Amino acid sequence: MSPAKQSPSSLPVSFGDGAVPLLIGPAAILLLALFGAAQPVPAVAAAAATAAGAWVLRARSRKRQDEARPATAQAPAVADPPPYATILERLPDPLMVIAAEEADDLTGRRFVFANGAARDLFRIQGERALLVTAVRNPQVLEAVDEALFGGIERAVEYETGGSQGRAWIAYARPIREQMGPSRLALLVLRDETDARRSERTRADFLANASHELRTPLASLSGFIETLRGHAKEDPVVRDKFLGIMQAQAERMSRLIDDLMSLSRIELNEHIAPLGRVDLAMAAVDVIDALSPQARDKGVGFDPVLPPRGAAVVEGDRDQIIQVIQNLIDNAIKYTPRDGVVRVEIFPGLTVDSAAAARDPAAARMSLLTPDHAAGERYATLRVSDRGPGLAREHLPRLTERFYRVEGQKSGDRSGTGLGLAIVKHIMNRHRGGLTVESVQGEGATFGVYLPMAKVVAEKGLVAVAVAEA
After folding, report:
1. Residue 224 shares a structural domain with residue 185
2. How far apart are CA 278 and CA 447, in angstroms?
3. CATH for 365
4. pLDDT along the chain (469 residues), means of 10
5. Domain span at residue 312?
6. CA 120, CA 65: separation in Å to the nearest integer?
C-alpha cells in the first residue's frame, strides 16, 4: 500500500505500534473557527481538545481496518484536504498539539502541530520538533506536563522580553483519548498585552494624578477658605488670591491634559504610525503658533530649515507636532529675555550621524536609541536654548514622569513634568531616537531623529551620488 500524501490536516505521530496519523479534521477546525471568534480561550481549548480526541479514535479505527484489509486489496483513494484547513492556520491565537510518552523523559515532549501564529511567535522552522526548542518558559512547560500526565487543565501568565515585550496567557488542556503509550495535550496562547497595558496605564494615571493634583487642590481650598473669611471685604487681597487660584486651576488643567495624552500614547505605543510628515513644515507651524508666547517672554527664533519636501518622515502628524511643540515650548521657558531659541533640521543622515554629538565640550546622553535597518536614513530636529543648562547627573532622569531639576525655574508658567516623557514615548512609537546635550550656564540642546520616508530617502541618496560624481 503506497503511503498517503500528508496535508495540513494530517499530523503523523508515532504511538509505539506504528505511525498513525493524528487528524485535526474539519470538525476540530470548524469548532475552532466558530468558538475562537465568540468564546474565551478555555472554550476554544475545550472544543479543540474534544474534537482532536474524537479524530484520534477515528484514526485508531481506520488503522485497525487497514491492518485487517488483505494485502492485495486496493488502497482507498486519498481525500483532498478539507476546505477548512486554512482556518486553523489563520487563527490569530498561537495553537500547538503536543505529544509525549514518558513523564521522566523531559526531552521527550514534542509538538506535532503548530499553526501559523505559533510558528511566527516561536520562530519554528520544521514541522515537528522538541517542545523546549520553541517554548522555554518553566511555568508553561509545567502546565503542559500537568495536562499530559495529570489530566489537569491549567492557565498560566508569562511575559516575553525585549524593547516591546508581550504579555501572554497560556492554556494547557489534556486530550483525553490516546493511542498506545503516547499522550496528547493542546496548548493555546492568548495575547493580553493590550489589556495589561491598559490596566497599567489606568493605575499609573490614578497614582500620578492623585500625587500631582494634591498640591494645587490644597492651594485652592486654602484660598477659598481665606476668601470666605477676613479677606472677603478686602478687594486687593481678593484679586490677588483669585489670580493665584486661576493659575492653579490652569496648572491642573494642563496636568490632566498631559496625563491623558501620555496615557493614549502609551496605550498605542506598539502600533506603528501611518502617514508622512514634512518635518520642516511642521516646525514652521509650531513656530508660528508659539510666536506670541515667545514675544511676551522677549525670546526670538533662529530657524535653520531645509526646503519643502526635503525632510519628509514616516509618522503621525499630530504626534510629531506634539514633539516639536514640547521641545520648543520647553526652550522658550528656560531661555532668558532677549535670548534666542535655535531650531535646526538636517535630513538624509545615517543613524550614527543623526545621534552624533555637536559640541564636544557638552555633557551628552542618548535618552532613546531605536532599532534601525541597514541603510536607513533619518531626519534630525534639534532645539537649543540659552538657559542655565543641566548638570550631567540629571540627564538620565529627564524623561521620568514629573522629574524636575531642583533649583531651576521655568518662568511664570510652570510645567507639568511630563513633556519629555511624552516626547520619548512618541519617538519610541515612531522608531526614532532622542538625545540631549548640555553645558551648564550656556544652555541645552534636545534632538530627535525619525526614519525618513523611503521615496524621499532614496532621492536623497541619488542626489548625493550625483554630487559626488
Report:
1. no
2. 17
3. 3.30.565.10
4. 41 40 41 41 54 50 55 46 64 88 82 85 78 86 90 87 76 78 87 80 70 76 81 80 84 80 80 90 94 91 92 92 93 91 93 85 86 84 90 85 65 67 91 91 91 67 39
5. 272-469
6. 38
